[in-house]
Amino acid sequence: MSVVNINPGICGLISKIIIETEDMQEVIIKIESLCPYIMEMAKEIQEIDGFVECFAKFQDSKVYNAAQKYSKHVACPVPSGIIKGIEIACGLALPKPVKIDFE
Asked: If pLDDT is split at 50, 70 and 90, which confidence band does 55 have?
């Protein structure tokens, strides 16, 4: 299991992504978010082949296709956080914080 907590910045609409897998490939994604757009997106990405998703091109990604339909701005870090969580759940990456700082 992988749990990703995302504070997206100024909007303050925090999301919690829970990714579970039994075979380290097919994942079940559960999303708790204060953002109504992310919750709409969540309905379309509940079950995904993690290997396919993590190695997909942007235009072929189920996560990014759902984000394109529902997210209101391209800078939203939630789609990227979901894919990072899938990588961790499938054993394709180790859990290490991702950070963006502004000066």
From this structure: very high
Q: What is the DSSP string of 65-84?
A: HHHHHH-S-TT-SHHHHHHH
5, containing H or E segment: strand 2-6
Strands (E) located in 24-98? 26-33, 47-49
- Do the domain assignments include residue 100? no
pLDDT at residue number 59: 96
pTM: 0.95
What CATH number is associated with residue 72? 3.90.1010.10
User: What's the domain range around 65?
Assistant: 2-89
Q: Is the dihedral of CA 5, 77, 87, 61 positive or negative?
A: positive
The answer to whether residues 27 and 50 touch, using CB atoms and an 8 Å cutoff, is yes
Helix (H, G, I), strand (E, B) or coil at 13: coil
Query: Count of domains in the chain?
Result: 1
